[in-house]
Amino acid sequence: MTTAFDPIDVAGKRLSNRIVMAPMTRSRAYGPGSSPTAAMATYYAQRASAGLIVTEGTQPSAVGQGYPFTPGLHSPQQVAAWRPVTDAVHAAGGTIFAQLMHTGRIGHPSMLPEGLWLVGPSAVAAAGKTFTPEGMQDFVTPVELAEADIAATIADFAQAARNAIDAGFDGVELHGANGYLLHQFLSTNANRRTDGWGGSTQGRIRFPIAVVRAVADAIGADRVGLRISPANPLNDIAEDDYRDTYRALVEAIEPLDLAYLHVMEMGPKADRDLTLDLRKRFTGTFVLNPGTPGAATGPDELSLIEDGTADMLSFGALFLANPDLPARLAAGGPFNTPDQATFYGGDEHGYTDYPTLTA
Hints:
The chain contains eleven helices and 14 strands. With 359 residues, it is α/β, with parallel strands linked by helices. The longest helix is centred in the middle third of the chain and has 20 residues, at 147-166.
C-alpha cells in the first residue's frame, strides 16, 4: 500500500514524501519592487521537509498583481531576490515550485504602476470589495483583453516561468483556481466573450491551455503543474457547466505530460465524484487539496493517498502552524493549532487587514 511517506518522482526529482505545502499568499514581499526578503527564505526553508513546496502566488507581470506586498517574477531585481529563497530550501533538502498567479480582474488600480488598469476576459467587474493598503475598496471593471493583449499575457507567463528557473526554482505551478485570470476565462460569468476565447466550453478553456502550452514550451512540461478548483465560487465566479469544462480541460492537457495536476476541492459545490473522474482522465501525478469544510486538511486525509484517490496531498493552514508537518503527520501529532493571528499579514509594517489566502 502506498502511503504519504513513500517517495515519488516529480519534475525529474525524487521527492522524499507525498506531502505538499500548499501555496498560501501572505503579503510579505517587502523588498524593493515587490521582491522577496530574507524572512521569506527562512519561512520556506523551515518547511523544506515537505515533499514539495509551492510558493505563495507570484505575479508574472506588473498588471497581474492583485494584493499588497505580493512578490513578482517579472524583473531582474525580483529574480535575484528569489535566489536566496530557493538556495535556502535546497540547502535544507527541499524542492520548491513558484506559483504563477495573475489575478486578472481581482485587485485594485491603486496597487498598479501608473498607467496600468486591471484586465480580464470581459469588461465585467467582480462583486464585492478587495484589500488595499488604504483599506477595503470596491472591485473595478477590468479592461477586456484584446487579441494582442492575450498573446502578450501568454508571453508574460512563459517569461516568468523562465525567470523562475533562473531564480533556482525546480518548476512552476500555474494558478488556474480561486477566481483569478485563468479561472476567469473558464467561468461563465466573468468570461462573456463571443470570439474564440469564450462562449463554448472549447472557447473558455482555450486561454488556460495556451498558457500551459507556452510555459511547457519555455521550461519543459515536466517542470509545470496546473492548479484548478472546479465549482469554486471564490471571487465571484460562476461555472454553470463546470463538469464538462474541467473534463475538457484535463483531456486537453493530459497529452502534455505535465509535472502534476493540483485539484482544490473548495466551496459548497466541492465535488468528489468529479475529482475521481479527473483522476482517471489525468494519468500523471495527481495532487489533491481535499475539501474539509470547517477544518484544515489534517491526518485523517492521509488515507486519500492510501486508497489511490491522489498521489500527493497538499496542506495549507496546518503547515503554517507546524513547519515540521511531515514528521508530525508520521508520528500522529501533536499538532499546533493555527490561530487567527497566523492568517494575517500584519507585522512591523503595520498592515493588519489582509488575510492569508490559500491561493
